[in-house]
Design a protein that fits this description.
The longest helix has 20 residues, at about 105-125. The protein is elongated and about 70 Å long. The protein is of the alpha/beta class. The strands form 2 sheets. The chain has a 6-stranded parallel sheet, with helices on both faces. A 5-stranded parallel sheet has the order 2-1-3-4-5. Helix 2 packs parallel to helix 13 and helix 6 packs across helix 9 (about 165-170). Helix content is about 35%, strand content about 15%. It folds into 2 domains: about 5-100 and about 290-310, Rossmann fold (3-Layer(aba) Sandwich), CATH 3.40.50; about 110-280, NAD(P)-binding Rossmann-like Domain (Rossmann fold), CATH 3.40.50.
Length: about 325
């Protein structure tokens, strides 16, 4: 007999996009799926009809469930989350022994691919070349005295050792680069942040979102960067001391910063981040985007199939 399932999300249109191109149909074939996507506003009126639900599917827009609400879902056994972090809603579920699965490793693929492209272009000096090549007169000078080292034997530093950094390390493996991974906790580091900012041509931030990492990437580190070096941030804006980054990059036009995340997001209208030619902003697009989000649905659908068969799960969140 098929188990009873429901979909919860405060962003139903985005949920349907994640489960588009046949994913919704695949999900419907695996369970007895409640016909509506349940939002937080409609939860009170829908809960009496959900007493048989054993599984919740969600994506961006998942909302926390109170103890009283969970009491009205007595058969709930698992939540399959087709997105990244579950910190905002998982604690009460885990405390009741409810299985929580997240597609955070699948989301890491998109970020790693984005960074791979930026790292290879950075090693070729593309970003600096692009901003310097503004007239025919500079062509010969840029071609003959191009300062970038190229993507052969150069050092690339990945800050952090989580799913994104691990995936990115694998993607970089076919290239003859010296990839240095810097663990997120100082106690485990065999190489310091100071060392990699001095020696790597490209530094890519993937530190975890923890209070002890707030502002850890500061002016003292940026001032150590090699001539022409590139800093990439797809981690968290709070991990960068932005005033100090701005001060250093104002004085060092040879450096390049590629910032997909900032704090605040977006930066204030008068922020120098918009004005400095050696700082390039993107609007938080490194993670799963458009069709890429369907990789997250595929991840949780595969996990759900394993769960139905009583097999070990690959992406279960542990307490």
């Amino acid at each position: 007999m098929l188990c009873h399932a429901a979909c919860f999300s405060n962003q139903p249109e985005k949920f349907l996009h994640v489960f588009s191109r046949g994913r919704w149909q695949r999900l419907s074939a695996l369970c007895r799926l409640y016909p509506r996507i349940v939002t937080q506003d409609m939860l009170a009126q829908e809960l009496p009809k959900l007493a048989q639900v054993e599984v919740i599917f969600s994506s961006w827009g998942m909302f926390p469930l109170s103890e009283r609400q969970l009491d009205q879902l007595p058969k709930l056994k698992a939540v399959f989350y087709a997105a990244g972090t579950t910190q905002t809603f998982s604690a009460p579920l885990l405390s009741r022994g409810i299985t929580v699965v997240s597609a955070w490793r699948a989301n890491a693929v998109s970020v790693a691919e984005f960074c791979l492209a930026q790292i290879l272009l950075a090693c070729k000096g593309y970003f600096r070349n692009h901003r310097d090549y503004g007239a025919p007169a500079v062509f010969d000078d840029l071609s003959n005295r191009h300062p970038a080292p190229g993507a052969y034997g150069e050092q690339v530093a990945l800050l952090g050792a989580g799913a994104i950094a691990q995936t990115l390390t694998g993607l970089l493996a076919p290239f003859e680069l010296d990839v240095v991974s810097v663990p997120s906790r100082a106690a485990r580091r065999t190489v310091s942040l100071e060392q990699v900012f001095e020696t790597a041509f490209v530094i890519s931030n993937h530190l975890p979102n923890r209070p002890d990492n707030v502002g850890v990437l500061n002016g003292s580190l940026f001032r150590r960067m090699r001539p022409g070096a590139v800093f990439i941030n797809t981690g968290r804006g709070l991990q960068v001391n932005e005033p100090e980054l701005i001060e250093v990059f104002s004085r060092r036009p040879d450096l390049t910063a590629l910032l997909d995340v900032t704090k605040p997001e977006p930066p204030a209208a008068d922020s120098p981040l918009y004005q400095l030619p050696n700082i390039q902003l993107s609007s938080h697009i490194a993670g799963a985007l458009n069709h890429e989000t369907q990789r997250l649905a595929d991840c949780v659908l595969a996990e759900f199939s394993r769960w139905l068969q009583g097999e070990a799960l690959c992406h279960q969140i542990m307490t």
